[in-house]
Amino acid sequence: MPRIPMSPDEGEIPPNERPPFALKRPSFGPKQVRSLSGIKRGKKFLKCRVSGSKEPIEVLLSPRVDAKGHWWCYCRMGKIKREVSLQDLSVVPYPNGKWNNLNWLERT
């Protein structure tokens, strides 16, 4: 299985040894989406996992934040339309300041 860097200064950690959350934004490469400003209606991305899977998604509505501080985006994934957590995709941190260390959003 390929080794994925956790961040530029932390070296490489095998995917099966990565903790699910990190205190710093994980680095998944130059195509990783790192801000809400790039997520706009009609744009297409890949929803990626450290397991190696990549799923195409299309943004249907601009990102929104709920009352608890969670960021969401309504997207199409194949024939399914649903809200996707932008914290789960390492675009923004969770309200507690931690980052998802296993998934990311990638520009196509």
General description of the model:
The protein is mainly beta. It has one domain (30-107). Helices cover 0% and strands 40% of the residues. The protein contains no helices and 10 strands. It has strands at 4-7, 11-13, 21-22, 44-49, 54-59, 64-65, 71-77, 80-85, 99-100, 103-107. The strands form 3 sheets. Strands 4, 5, 6, 7, 8 and 10 form a 6-stranded antiparallel beta sheet that branches. The two termini are 23 Å apart. The model is unreliable at 1-10 (pLDDT under 50).
Summed up:
With 108 residues, the protein is mainly beta.
Give the % helix: under 10%
Q: What is the quaternary state of this protein?
A: single chain
Distance between the ends: 23 Å
Summed up, the domain count is 1
The pLDDT mean sits at 87
Structural class: mainly beta
Q: What is the number of strand segments?
A: 10
User: What does the overall shape look like?
Assistant: globular
Radius of gyration: 14 Å
Query: Count the helices. How many?
Result: 0
**Strand percent estimate:** 35-45%
What profile does the largest beta sheet have? 6 strands, antiparallel
Question: What series of H and E elements makes up the topology?
Answer: EEEEEEEEEE
User: Which parts are unreliable, with pLDDT below 50 for 5 consecutive residues or more?
Assistant: 1-10
